Amino acid sequence: MSNLPKIAWVGLGIMGSPMSENLIKAGYSVTGFTLEQDKLDRLAAAGGTAAGSIAEAVKDADVIVTMVPASPQVEAIAYGEAGILANAKQGALIVDMSSITPQTSVDLAKNAAEKGIRVLDAPVSGGEAGAIEAVLSIMVGGEQADFDAALPILQALGKTIVLCGPHGSGQTVKAANQLIVAVNIQACAEAVVFLEKSGVNLTAALDVLNGGLAGSTVLTRKKDNFLNRDFKPGFRIDLHHKDMGIVTDAARNVGAALPVGAVVAQLVASLRAQGDGGLDHSALLRAVERLSGSQV
């Protein structure tokens, strides 16, 4: 155990808490920092160490994992006198698992390199369930040597772990992932409303659909959400709204047309504007119900 790298974890939200706990279960020493005291208490109860600041968390760490909501938060924890770059030791490796713009990741890697600190962008897919079960898909951008060094840690968190290219590539692939997921959820939501209004047994219908070409991980994971109208957040509409902004902006920059994605991005935005931003993204069903004249 003493030969394993010391890990600092910054950001203990819906995803970060179970992920950090999986590293503790794998034998790693984890020192964590977040803004919520109850999350720090949870980490300590799981066998980790709660830090009082970013500087305290990262000062002795070999690997610093970050999992925060968006680019502004990554920049806030990385830069400045109280940030990661000013307080991490030379040679440390930052593994940023947040979902942010590719350019933010490229800039972070460049600025970190000037201080002798290495960076990987390593966003994930799989939601809260995937984080708990340690079966996340992890898409990585950065140098091969740094990827190889981080791989044992990532293997304690996920099942499918792929180096996708240079810095920013992980974020680009994550943007594509979020595009596919949003469009898939929207299609499932439309199918659910269509089936219900047609008087079909919804449970039976979704079971048989999921066994054929229409089946997907999205339908498997979200089927019960649709059936039970249970929209407790595993991945919030607010965050998917942010991610759809990332993919539409990135696509515009490279000249890629996203006609269906643009429509779904607007549907996500409208759901958020109606006050459903804190719900799980499967709540896209509510938007389809409203459009179909159902009482929500």
From TrEMBL:
InterPro entries attached to this UniProt entry: 6-PGluconate_DH-like_C_sf, 6PGD_dom2, 6PGDH_NADP-bd, HIBADH-like_NADP-bd, HIBADH-related, NAD(P)-bd_dom_sf, Tartro_sem_red
Transmembrane segments: none
Residue span(s) of domain 3-hydroxyisobutyrate dehydrogenase-like NAD-binding: 168-287
Keywords tagged on the record: NAD, Oxidoreductase
NAD in keyword set: yes
Residue ranges constituting the 6-phosphogluconate dehydrogenase NADP-binding domain according to the UniProt record: 6-165
Signal peptide limits: none
Keyword Amino-acid biosynthesis on entry: no
Protein name per the record: 2-hydroxy-3-oxopropionate reductase
Organism of origin: Streptomyces violascens
Family recorded in the similarity comment: Belongs to the HIBADH-related family.
